[in-house]
Design goal:
The protein has 87 residues and is mainly alpha-helical. The protein has helices spanning 7-11, 33-72, and strands at residues 2-4, 17-19. It is rod-shaped.
Length: 87
């Protein structure tokens, strides 16, 4: 600990206050770094899942929109039908 305070209180010989240093103690066992990384990792996974779900939804809606456009134009062969050929 080091003395701290204003200059007048430090100048008085019988009156000194002690302050804690703001440095990292290597013997300190309290480590909160893992929780912050875990939360960031969970946030990254949730964001990735939302992006994947959004891409899937966009693809399905685009396909449905193309199907509706085809049907609204009066065509009857909009959905291709796969007919297996027997040999």
């Amino acid at each position: 600990m080091v003395p701290c305070g204003d200059v007048e209180s430090l100048a008085e010989p019988n009156r000194t206050r002690q302050c804690f240093r703001m440095a990292h103690d290597p013997n300190d066992t309290d480590d909160d770094g893992g929780g912050n990384r875990r939360g960031a990792l969970i946030g990254l996974v949730v964001t990735a899942l939302l992006v994947i779900a959004g891409y899937y939804l966009m693809t399905v809606l685009r396909h449905q929109g193309q199907m509706e456009d085809c049907l609204m134009s009066g065509r009857s062969n909009c959905a291709p039908v796969d007919i297996p050929t027997h040999k």
